[in-house]
TrEMBL record:
PANTHER family linked: INTEGRASE_RECOMBINASE PROTEIN MJ0367-RELATED (PTHR30349:SF41), PHAGE INTEGRASE-RELATED (PTHR30349)
Top-rank taxon, per record: Bacteria
CDD domains the UniProt entry points to: DNA_BRE_C
Region (Disordered): 16-42
Name of the protein described by the UniProt record: Site-specific integrase
Record family assignment: Belongs to the 'phage' integrase family.
Domain Integrase SAM-like N-terminal: 98-163
Length: 410
């Protein structure tokens, strides 16, 4: 290991000569609200008056969502979406918005829809001016763009929540804004057709991802290379990997136990395996961090830094940049090839290790009138090997459903 290169990587101003990634750490300055340009909003083609009219329409939308928001600070007596369920309808049909993540997603989707209505229909100045025919034409526009059934369904659900919020503030006509005809227009979401991206086929092949990692080791230090190896061979999300610290790494069992609050999607604790070569690099990095609780990469890198790092390494390797999340697709290819050589007993043991991280990953369920744990070695051994491989991959990606791996295989 070249110690000078590593010390440079961990310094405040590495100043790499990469096309996109310089490694420069942001200096501590008073935080100020970032300003979004008209080009970023994709409204730079509008006149000044039209831009202001569209922004007023977005402000009208914000007021609706605020009136229907149930998002509050955490407390022991806090009401949740679970308490608001309607009969045996599960979580469907619950009024209000109960999650900050859902709130932001609905708002982004509805802003896109309102922009479409503003540009394609006359006299759309307020949310109350939106009509059912506009919803139908918007769905057709999404279908023409080859958006997936899941994406179209998510947009319709967001518009439905906007209509619910509008009714709550007195716009009674919006109770029928999204109707059954609109629901019938949504393509059927077949498991075999699920995919990531608008047209499918996006992402890195395993070879392309390995080229990116190799170029990282060639042009940068093991600090950056260990990060990309973890993204490829352990399949965490970009926000998750930045919160990993040394006190979460189990060097004896070759894994990382990601159990910090708000580290994982839906706060679902998770174990991810780590190859020995990557663990060796992490052991060399450990003495250079003052505390075992310090985020290894997150203390000096942001998601933007990681994206620029991957983009630079892709450029060096002659690979078309696709994104950081698509490392998970390549990682799944790498694991699937190896899992086919494993015995059923080894697969079962690894799945039980995944779900043993936290009690809520292996809950007690009612089966044939008896209360049993969802996963146990005896019942898993009765499963087909193909099912066990899919279950292993789903747990690796941070899901519990076997079909969660389908979009990464397309």
């Amino acid at each position: 290991m070249n110690q000078d290169i590593l010390m440079r990587a961990l310094s405040n101003q590495p100043k790499y000569d990469g096309k996109y990634f310089t490694g420069r750490k942001k200096q501590s300055k008073p935080k100020r609200q970032s300003q979004i340009s008209d080009k970023q909003r994709r409204i730079d083609h509008l006149s000044s008056n039209r831009r202001h009219a569209l922004l007023r329409l977005h402000t009208d939308l914000d007021k609706l969502f605020i009136a229907n928001s149930k998002v509050t600070r955490h407390s022991s007596s806090k009401q949740t979406k679970h308490h608001a369920r309607k009969g045996s309808n599960g979580n469907l049909g619950v009024e209000g918005i109960w999650s900050s993540v859902t709130y932001d997603r609905y708002k982004r989707s509805c802003r896109t829809f309102l922009k479409y209505c503003f540009e394609n229909f006359e006299n759309v100045k307020q949310v109350r001016d939106i009509k059912p025919r506009m919803v139908g034409q918007y769905i057709n526009a999404l279908i023409e763009k080859d958006r997936s059934a899941k994406t179209i369904s998510a947009y319709v659900s967001a518009i439905q929540k906007m209509a619910e919020s509008a009714v709550k503030v007195g716009i009674k006509g919006h109770s029928r804004l999204v109707n059954e005809k609109h629901r019938q227009m949504i393509p059927i979401a077949r498991k075999a057709e699920r995919r990531r991206g608008s047209v499918g086929g996006v992402g890195y092949s395993l070879r392309e991802a390995q080229v990116i990692v190799k170029q990282c080791g060639k042009h940068y230090s093991i600090y950056e290379q260990a990060l990309l190896e973890l993204l490829l061979y352990s399949c965490p999300r970009i926000s998750e990997v930045l919160k990993i610290s040394f006190d979460q790494i189990d060097f004896e069992n070759n894994c990382v136990v990601m159990n910090k609050k708000n580290q994982n999607k839906n706060n679902r604790p998770r174990l991810i395996p780590v190859p020995e070569a990557t663990l060796h690099k992490l052991k060399m990095l450990e003495p250079y961090l003052a505390s075992s609780q310090t985020n290894i990469w997150g203390h000096r890198m942001t998601e933007k830094h990681v994206r620029h790092l991957v983009k630079s390494c892709a450029s060096y390797g002659g690979v078309k940049y696709s994104g950081v999340h698509d490392f998970r697709k390549a990682g799944l290819q790498w694991y699937t090839k190896r899992l086919r050589k494993w015995s059923k007993e080894r697969l079962v043991n690894e799945i039980m290790r995944f779900v043993g991280v936290d009690p809520k990953l292996n809950p007690v369920i009612k089966k044939n009138g008896l209360l049993v744990q969802k996963y146990d070695p005896q019942s898993l051994l009765k499963r087909q090997k193909r099912w066990l491989i899919n279950q292993y991959c789903s747990q690796l990606l941070g899901h519990s459903r076997n079909d969660a791996t389908s979009p990464y295989r397309r």
